[in-house]
Amino acid sequence: MVEVQRLRPLAANLAADLPLGTDVASVRRRIEGLEMLLERALTIPVINRKVGLDAIAGLVPVAGDLLTGAMGLYVVWEARNLGMPRWQLWRMLGNVAFDSAVGSVPLAGDLFDLLYRSNTRNLKIIRKHLDKHHPATRVIEG
Question: Which residues, 6+ apart, have CB-to-CB distance to 40 below 8 Å?
């Protein structure tokens, strides 16, 4: 019982930090968090290059590329819910499809995943749309 009482404030703080809403600002934070997880969560010390789950999971044949492809499609789905134009959604789908197709090639695809960041490209498209149509969600990065 004491353990549960200690965890409640922690769970409340965690829930407060998660952007679970359907408002544009919450969607933006979710997409930015997912992009960071997929593309630049860790730094390789020797070459000082940021990598994410996309490059790491890509080392697992088939399953890794399917998982990261599905996560990339989630970003496109969120963009669709934001009301982005169809041509931008197709462009984003093309980025995910290209990344998944080339990334599935053994060895060469793993190197490609280090260089081609489809989720970062898609985040750039989404940010441009949001900055134009929802400027209140813009975050000044320092």
Answer: 50, 51, 52, 120
pLDDT 10s digits, 21-70: 788 888 999 999 999 999 999 888 888 889 999 999 988 888 999 999 99
Helices 108-115 & 86-103, crossing angle to 10 degrees?
Answer: 140
| Alpha-carbon gap, residue 62 to 109, rounded angstroms | 11
Whole-number Å distance between alpha carbons of 135 and 123: 16
- Dist CA 56 CA 71 (whole Å): 14
Is the pTM higher than 0.85? The answer reads no
Contact 84, 126 (CB under 8 A): yes
